[in-house]
Amino acid sequence: MDLDLDTLTRMATAVVFGGAIGFNRDIYGKPTGIRAHALVSLGAAILVVAAGDLPDPTSRVIQGVIAGIGFLGAGVILRGTKTLHVYHLVTAASLWVTTGIGILCGLGAWKLAAAATGLVLVVLVAGLHLDRWLYGAGGVKDDDRE
């Protein structure tokens, strides 16, 4: 496998899109940020690009990537010791969707990856404000508290 301009562009775009989502998580003080999201997106893109040279279908690699990211997301989720509240589900979900964006970048689906990144950022920003409006100044109900 050679590193050509197309492959480098796919990987760099994955880093930029994943990093944009991670930046949002960083500015809200969540447990994962720019580096984690950029690396998750890049990792997914690398595996999809590499799968293009394998005799195995790319869809099997994508299935493995999606299943594997669940372990990373599970490591982010916490349960309160004195309550039944679960924390950081939104952050875990953002890692999962960032994996999908990395896969799109690896496939060269630029428009889909850009649209997905924009939609994720809209959900994260507008959703937070909507949660605060619905549940008060304390923020979100159960899904992403510190």
Kindly describe this structure.
By secondary structure, the protein is mostly helical. The chain has one domain. It has helices at 5-27, 34-51, 58-76, 89-107, 110-135; strands spanning 78-79, 86-87. It has a two-stranded antiparallel sheet. A hairpin with a 6-residue loop joins strand 1 (78-79) and strand 2 (86-87). Helix 1 packs antiparallel against helix 4 and helix 3 (58-76) runs antiparallel to helix 4 (89-107). The termini are far apart.
Helix content: over 70%
Average pLDDT works out at: 85
Q: Gyration radius, to the nearest Å?
A: 16 Å
> What is the H-and-E element order?
HHHEEHH
Low-confidence parts, pLDDT < 50 over ≥5 residues?
A: none
Reading side by side through the largest sheet, how are the strands ordered? 1-2
What is the domain tally?
Answer: 1
Described by strand count, sense and barrel closure, the largest sheet is:
2 strands, antiparallel
Q: Any idea what the shape is?
A: globular
Total strand segments: 2
SS-based structural class?
A: mainly alpha
Kindly list the characteristics that best describe this protein:
globular; 146 residues; single chain; two-stranded antiparallel sheet; mainly alpha
Short description:
The chain has one domain (5-135).
Topology:
Layout: H1 5-27, H2 34-51, H3 58-76, E1 78-79, E2 86-87, H4 89-107, H5 110-135
